[in-house]
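hey so i finally got around to running the thing on that chain from the lab meeting. sorry it took forever, my laptop kept dying and i had to restart like 3 times. anyway pasting the input first so we r on the same page abt which one it is
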Amino acid sequence: MKHGKNRRSAGVAAPSAGAAPDRRRLVAGAAALAVAALTGACSNVLPGVGPPPRLFRLSPKSTFPKGLPTVDWQLVIEQPLAPTGLATTRIALHRAAIELEYYARANWTDLAPAMVQTLVVESFENSDRIVAVGREALGLRADYVLKLELREFQSEYTEGAIPTAHVRLNAKLVKMPQRMIVGSKSFEARVGASADRIEDIVAAFDDALGKALKNLVVWTLQTGEAARRG
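ok and heres what got predicted. didnt touch it at all, straight out
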């Protein structure tokens, strides 16, 4: 007699009709929990997750002393050279002299050297004392080239909980086509923020850079005109 195929092993219950669907639901639920856990874990490490950074820009200088010479020469502004730590869109800060940090979720609208170059050009234009001024990329026939270095462009927490915005620009005025340096000078300003909030810190940057830009424009026009006449 062939009845082995119809027997079931002793002690093993036959699966009920609803067992397979229950098992599928269990597997599906476990998979969903695993995906949710993985998504939650990745949200802490994947770039681009979280609120976007706030973007800040600074303003050009628009007021200048009376008696500023009006010049008939053209000026090209080179993009400032800057250390790698400052050549970024991030807003830099110093808590210690040997360490550079950045504010979280707060950026400049452009790389700091490019932003400063734009503000220098606009400040010269706002003076209404020069025939033409522009970036080197415009192919302007230059009588002078202004070479700049952005040496300091950070807030500093050196004297307490409220930072100071520190800006320093080094400038060289080069007469063309001789490529002769007719003057060089450093323009530096420090302005304390009114509070340790990013809005107040950016306002201090704006004030400090404005002071440096004003003095840079005045010095450049006076130095270039003196060299031209001399």
